[in-house]
Here is the input.
Amino acid sequence: MVTQELRLTWLPLEDNNLKKILLVILVLTFQSNISEAKTSTKSSIKMYEYCKHAIKKFNGEALDRVKSAKNLVCQWYFKGMFDSSVFVEVMNNIKSGKNTTEVKQARLNGMCAPKNISTEQWIRVFVKYLDDNPQKLNRSASINSAAALKKYYRCKR
Here is the structure.
C-alpha cells in the first residue's frame, strides 16, 4: 500500500527540526512559482485586461476557459470592493444614527454613486476611465476605480 504522507527519511538528518526547516524551504521555493499566477492590484494593467473580458461577457460574448477565469477575477474583485464599501457606509450610518434606507447615494471608496449601482456598471466605469486615461494604468486598481467613480459620479451636497 502506498502512503500519501511526505517522508523525508532519505535525508541524512538526525534532527527533526532540520527536516522541518528543509521542508519549509522547499515549500517556499515552489510557492514563488505559484504566486506568479496571482493577480496583483498594485497596478491596474492586469485588472484592466481582465475587466475587458468581463465586459465582453456582459455583452453576451462567449469566452474560452482562460478568459472566463479572468472575467471572474475582475467581477469578484469589484464585487468585494462594492460589498466592503457598502458595509463601511452602513456601519458609518448606524454610528451616526442615520436611517440606512433613506440613503440616496452609496458612498464607495470615498466617492458617491447611485445606491443601486451594480458591479457590472462599476466595471464599465473603471474600463472607460482607463480607456480615456491609459497613462494611469500604472496606478493601483483601487485608486483608479475610486478616480473613475469620482469622475463620473460626483457627490451631491
